[in-house]
Write a structure and sequence with these properties.
Elements: E1 4-9, E2 23-28, H1 32-41, E3 43-46, H2 52-68, H3 70-78, H4 95-98, H5 104-114, E4 118-128, E5 161-166, E6 177-179, E7 202-204, E8 211-215, E9 220-222, E10 230-239, H6 256-263, H7 266-271
Antiparallel strand pairs: 1-2, 3-8, 4-10, 5-8, 5-10, 6-7, 6-9
């Protein structure tokens, strides 16, 4: 994977490193051309983010969590059709997930696209189960649809990067992801809430351990999960001044991040939503 370096000068004298000087150099895990294509299309495919033991550790951690929260899983499957089971606050529930806090192959891209002052909006998972029919697919949706019509002169457009990391092969059996390239820039219309084909949609498939990075407002949907369970992590980034995701309620009172923050450095605290803004 090709890389390049990007240096930021903080114009408001805010020093992200906590040291003297006001520059932050980032080794971006992508080329400038890839970033430009990401900006225009709203998505970027990254194969092989996790392989071998690293991939298996994530699978095992999610399987453990699924078993511990089996009552929530069964309720979710019986309730909202098509979405499967969506456990939240993963970094509070297993140290394996906390290791993703400074995962550079995605974090460096988030900083290249949105600036150095980014935080985690959250780390969730989605597990979908085999079946057939529309109840086993998700409708078209967006993750941060808070745009008003008409758009005010000083409207602050919300930006978010959601990293969809697949722990199983994404294919016809598990259900590919459909996206509409460029739709993240369509500020004058919302995505439909149906499963029907949309003009220009593209179906993406990646191997286990790979991922699809999308802008939070890119139109996307999950195709039917037919013959095999699909496990996916959703690692999300926003600028530091955006609020944490409201989904999933409050984080666990005994969550791992509480103790972690006591010894965390400047960057870790900022990524977990403490600071990084004036």
């Amino acid at each position: 994977m090709e890389r390049h370096k990007l240096r930021y000068e903080m114009m408001n004298k805010f020093d992200p490193s906590g040291e003297t000087g006001y520059n932050w150099e980032i080794e971006v895990h992508a080329t400038p051309e890839e970033l430009q294509a990401f900006a225009e299309s709203g998505y970027l495919i990254r194969e092989g983010l996790f392989q071998g033991e690293a991939l298996q550790k994530l699978r095992d951690a999610l399987d453990r969590l699924e078993e511990r929260e089996s009552e929530k899983r069964d309720s979710a499957i019986a309730g909202k059709k098509g979405w499967g089971f969506i456990p939240r606050h993963l970094m509070d529930k297993d140290e394996v997930f906390l290791d993703l806090l400074k995962f550079q192959p995605t974090l460096s891209i988030a900083r290249a696209m949105m600036g150095p002052l980014v935080r985690l909006r959250g780390l969730s998972a989605r597990i979908t189960y085999p079946g057939d029919g529309r109840q086993h697919q998700t409708p078209w949706h967006q993750h941060m649809r808070v745009i008003s019509n008409p758009i005010p002169p000083w409207f602050s457009r919300p930006h978010c990067i959601d990293c969809l990391i697949y722990l199983d092969d994404l294919n016809e059996d598990t259900g590919a992801v459909a996206i509409v390239p460029g739709s993240h820039d369509w500020l004058d219309k919302a995505s439909p809430t149906v499963h029907e084909l949309v003009e220009g949609e593209v179906h993406l498939q990646v191997k286990a351990g790979g991922g699809v990075l999308i802008h939070g407002n890119l139109w996307h949907r999950g195709l039917p999960t037919l013959n095999a369970k699909r496990r996916m992590l959703i690692l999300s980034y926003t600028p530091t001044w955006l609020r944490k995701s409201p989904h999933g309620g409050a984080q666990p009172e005994d969550g791992l991040t509480h103790d972690f923050l006591k010894e965390a450095d400047f960057e870790e605290r900022m990524l977990l939503g403490v600071g990084g803004y004036s």
